[in-house]
Design brief:
Layout: H1 2-33
Length: 34
């Protein structure tokens, strides 16, 4: 039971990091277009 939970938490961490990087990219893109 513990192993899938650990895998899920790693996946969620990577997913959140990916969203954060994407938001940062969108923000820089918006700023450079203004």
């Amino acid at each position: 039971m513990e192993e899938p939970i650990e895998k899920l938490s790693q996946f969620n961490r990577a997913f959140a990091l990916d969203i954060r990087a994407n938001d940062l990219w969108n923000w820089t893109y918006d700023c450079s277009n203004k």
